[in-house]
Amino acid sequence: MKVFYNWLKEFVDVTAPAAELRARLSLAGISVDSIEESVAGPVLDAEITANRPDCLGHYGIAREIAAIYRLPVKPVQPKLKESAEKASSATRVEIESPDLCGRYTARILRGVKIGPSPGWLRERLEAIGQKSINNVVDATNAVMFELGQPQHAFDLDKLAERRIVVRRARAGEKIRTLDGIERTLTKDMCVIADAARAVAIAGVMGGAESEIGAGSRNILLESAWFEPTSIRRTSKALGLRTEASYRFERGADPEMAELASRRAAELIQQLGGGEILAGAVDKYPRREAPRKIEFTRKEFLRVMGADATDRDIEEILSALGFHPVRTDANRGGVGSPDAAWQCEQPSWRRDVAGETDLIEEVARHYGYDKFPPRLPPAKQPAHRLPHAEAEDRLRERAIALGYEEIVAIPLVDARRDERFRPEGVAPAVIGNPLAEDASVMRSTGIVSMIGALEWNLNHGQRNLRLFEIGRTYSLRGGEPVETAVLTLGATGFAREKTVHEAAREFEFADLKGDLDRIGELAGGFAWKSGGPAWLAAGHAARLSLAGGADRALGATGKLSQRVAEQLKLRQQIFLAELALEPLLAGMEAARASLRFTPLGRFPAVERDFSVVLPDGVTFAQVADAIRALGIPELRRIQAADLFRGGQVPAGKYSLMIRVTFESAQATLTDAQIAEFSSRIVAAMQQRFGAALRTS
Prior knowledge:
Layout: E1 2-4, H1 5-8, H2 18-27, E2 31-38, E3 41-47, H3 58-69, E4 82-86, E5 92-95, E6 101-110, H4 119-127, H5 135-147, E7 151-155, E8 163-168, E9 174-176, E10 182-184, E11 190-193, E12 198-201, E13 205-206, E14 219-226, H6 228-238, H7 243-248, H8 256-272, E15 275-278, E16 281-283, E17 292-296, H9 297-304, H10 310-319, E18 325-326, E19 340-344, H11 355-366, H12 388-400, E20 404-405, E21 411-412, H13 414-420, E22 428-429, E23 440-441, H14 445-458, E24 464-476, E25 479-491, E26 493-495, E27 504-505, H15 508-519, E28 525-529, E29 535-545, E30 552-559, H16 561-566, E31 574-579, H17 580-592, E32 605-614, H18 619-627, E33 634-643, E34 652-661, H19 670-688, E35 691-692
Parallel strand pairs: 4-15, 5-8, 20-24
Antiparallel strand pairs: 1-3, 2-3, 6-14, 6-15, 6-16, 7-14, 8-11, 9-10, 11-12, 12-13, 17-19, 18-19, 21-23, 22-23, 24-25, 25-31, 26-27, 28-29, 29-30, 30-31, 32-34, 32-35, 33-34
Helix pairs in contact: 3-10, 4-5, 5-8, 9-11, 10-11
């Protein structure tokens, strides 16, 4: 909200410069982002939170300034020159939907001359970014920015039977609003109607058929209170956001309606002449009594950990309109630990509902910097979540492998989520999304991971290793389901260029190696070729825990060229997503099964086998064939190198297999090693048609 510095001075005698005012307001919770200089003077750009509609007018900001500097607020006391005729004789008001309209006031002005506003008013409105229209409309806008109460002026002569009916719109009812657009209404919307038709969308915008024009002379001035939720829904449904709806949907002050009406009538009479009929038609079906709230020093000390003086407490609460009255037995005592005050909730502060809210009001004006930092006392012992220790070890392993953790927002674009969504999964759609690209909860962490990689690549980061421990969201039988997942993403170089080594691009084998290192924590992964359609064929695999096929974890691989081109990604992207709960459970089971094994007393022996294998034979198949020989001294089987091309025939590839042997009883002899080696070679020849590579 734009706050005109010189306008504030009409309500509080502030002498502090605008820069100091900006700092003090920000410290008190009214954030002022910047100060702009206009022809008329400084303008503060204040960011008003949704719970403070009272500060959407200069008078509310002035009240905050008065509390900061302990100054009095000048009351708004309009002085009207009313005729003897009563407003009730010229119009009638009927509220058919009191659940949508809690108060409606109508004031009548006759013989008003419509014309341009004087320079001082145009200058004031232009300083806060408002365009001058005519003296009557400018007057209502000025009062809205002054007191925070939206108003609307109708041409009384254009209202059928000169009466107002506040009702729900009829299904399919249409109205042409002041912006010239014809809008179709629904039965949930509140409208202001005359005896024949709707003439305004309540709390949002007036209708073109009853607007004030150059020929208008008689005016019905509306000042009302509308139900916030209804205004918010109407505004969103119609795609129509106005200064009025912005205030009503946050909760205007119902008690301000009549005062603002008198202030606007006074200003219109000053600018356009005419007569004001006595009084107003004021329909207020459900007036609420002010709520009483107790404030005690004991609770203040408990929450804040430090004290404030009686004088400061009373001055702050009084300046903010809470009217504190001392109620403890020691009413005359200063600084009594049992001091208590009964306060009255002002109509403009519906957000203050209890003692804690009052404590916050005192604390922010007294100064948070005056309270020492401290931790609140814990009422219950803390317990770590299930699998927390295993998750810590998983995170440590990923970081040790060179990955950096990210935390992504789970709201994603629906079309992108659909591209990566697993088959048979129903998405969790947001009912009231803030933006089109945040309209569903992610069905897979891959969506967020690709978004993070894409953002970093577009900002010049070429080499990336990222991981996220997060959740995915879906619907199952209409009920929401959350699934914890581990997502990894990598692109760029696996190794930077050095004096001794050339640069090397990250490959699927690198990701497989990283996943195998993670899998070691859970007893190992079982790999099976294949994966979802968005992964490249031949560079994709499905993972499960080595303990059994029923313990599936997820998929990994290289992003397909087709999807990469659609997303305009110019680097190879490697991805993996694993279900977190079974992985962590597997880690805990593997750790529980660990047993101490003493170091061998006799040396281990390694033998490398460079064999030529047909395409389609995997290392896992080779390793299983070697283990099936049942050699007791066999300790490890590793893939040391892979080569294609050169003298290797087409349709085949060369694989170097490193096998480690070790005996617990004696040093292995050359004859034993030779016998083991011949058995391994024979098994590979018989099973896969392998041949030892000689060159």
